[in-house]
């Protein structure tokens, strides 16, 4: 949902009549119309509405590429790159990269690839090696192992497989080469908490 649409939802949710609504706009931005505002001004208005009880609806993600984009966004969060974990922040990123406002409208693989590759490139700068190959050990073939390895390297200033393996298996209670995607998610979230504590 755009900020402009959210302002109109907030007005309805708060039950503001025309005069009260315009008075809030003028008090916050000096403008009488949300349509004439900059994006920053609209965000200020939304902030004022939140102070008065507006609760934005949770953004529902859907579309064929939504899960992959969300997983990459959370990977960025767990690597300390993304400051705002919310789906709405991820949707804003997708809109900037593709010009498409919501994952539900992201149907073309070429458009989706722009956002996916942008996120992969971003996480690669933090050390995620996205390359694949039959020579790779089983735990490194999926995204969970790749991201967790980069996290471990960031936290420890280098990668030592023995200590990493011990941590992973103690956390998941499963041999590293038999880890499920859900178990890797738990490892990544734990390591992400540690990384975020290091980020100023």
Helix fraction, binned, reads 55-70%
Oligomer: single chain
- Into how many domains do the coordinates divide? 3
- Give a count of the beta strands, DSSP E runs of length 2 or more: 0
Strand content: under 5%
What do these coordinates show?
- With 200 residues, this protein is mostly helical.
- The chain folds into 3 domains: 3-51; 66-125, no CATH class; 138-198, no CATH class.
- It contains 9 helices and no strands.
- Helix 7 (143-156) packs parallel to helix 9 (181-198).
- The longest helix is centred in the C-terminal third of the chain and has 18 residues, at 181-198.
- It starts with a helix and ends with a helix.
- 27% of the residues are buried.
- The mean pLDDT is 91.
């Amino acid at each position: 949902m755009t900020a402009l649409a959210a302002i109109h939802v907030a007005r309805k949710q708060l039950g503001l009549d025309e005069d009260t609504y315009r008075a809030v706009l003028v008090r916050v931005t000096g403008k009488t119309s949300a349509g004439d505002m900059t994006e920053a001004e609209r965000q200020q208005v939304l902030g004022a509405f939140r102070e008065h009880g507006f609760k934005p609806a949770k953004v529902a993600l859907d579309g064929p590429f939504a899960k992959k984009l969300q997983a990459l966004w959370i990977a960025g969060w767990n690597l300390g790159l993304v400051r705002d974990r919310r789906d709405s922040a991820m949707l804003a990123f997708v809109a900037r990269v593709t010009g498409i406002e919501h994952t539900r409208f992201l149907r073309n693989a070429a458009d989706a690839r722009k956002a996916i590759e942008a996120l992969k490139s971003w996480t690669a700068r933090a050390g995620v090696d996205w390359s694949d190959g039959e020579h790779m050990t089983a735990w490194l073939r999926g995204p969970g192992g790749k991201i967790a390895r980069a996290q471990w390297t960031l936290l420890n200033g280098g990668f030592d497989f023995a200590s990493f393996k011990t941590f992973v298996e103690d956390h998941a209670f499963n041999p590293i080469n038999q880890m499920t995607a859900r178990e890797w998610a738990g490892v990544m979230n734990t390591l992400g908490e540690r990384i975020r504590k290091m980020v100023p």
